[in-house]
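Page 47, continued from p. 46.
Same chain as before, 261 aa.
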Amino acid sequence: MRPLSVAAALALLLPSAAAGDELDPTIVHIECSEPGGTPRKGTGVVISQNGMVLTAKHVVLGTSPTRRDDTTCSGSLGHALAGKSGMSFQTVSTAYDAALLKYPGLVDAPHVQFCQVEPRHKRAEVIASGFPLLSATGQPSERKGILATIEPDGKGLLESDAATTSGMSGGRVTFTENGTLVGIVSGVSPDPATGYPNAYAVLAASRLAPEFGQFGLASDPALCGARQRIVPTVVDSAAPWVAGDDPLPLGMKAGEGFCYL
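Result:
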C-alpha cells in the first residue's frame, strides 16, 4: 500500500467540521499529563524532516523540575481537534524553558529553520502562532507584533508585543519577512504594580541551537540575510512596460507590494 502524504493523513484525522480548513503541518497541538492528572495543553513547532518538535519545557514537565516516568504527551498536526498521536520524549534544555518531542511517522516533513536575531531586527515584524485554550474552533491563532528587544536576557528571552495567551506556550514565533523561526512562545512578563502584561516573552531559538542542533534545529544563512531590493533599469522612459514584455526583476515576492492602473 502506498503511504499517505502528511496532508492526506491529516485530512483523514480531522473532524468533519474542520475538513475544509487549510492545515499548517509545522505547528502541533500538544497535551502532556500524568495518570489521573489534568492535561497540560500547549503548542510545538516542527524543526526537522523526521518530526522533531520544539516546545516549552513547562508544557512537558509542568512544575516538576524533572520529567516523571509516567508522563505522556500526544499531539496533532495543524489542528487542536484532530485525533492525537503519541509523541516520544527526546530531551529538555538544561538552561532554558524548552523541550523536544518527536511526532511519529513523519518523513521529509515540512519544518522551519531559525535565524539569529541581529541589530537590524529591532522593531522587526513577527508572528506568534499557537493554540489558545479558549479557542472553540481548534485552529491555530496568529498574533502579529514586533520585536521590542534583540538581545536575549539570562533566560534566553526576547520581548515582543505579539499578544500570546495560555495554550500558545511553545508555539512558533517567526519573522514576517522570511518565515524563519525567531523562537518559541515562553510566557508573559507581568507589570509588578498592576499585573497587566508588560511584555510577551520569546525564547530565542539561537540560544537553543548548541543543545538542540544535533536533533535538527538549524539555520540556513541563505534564508537569513537582509533582502536587497532590485530597482529595474528603464531603458527607455518613453516606452513603459506593457503586458507581454519580458518580466522586470523587482526583487519582491508574491503578496508584497501592490500595483494600480
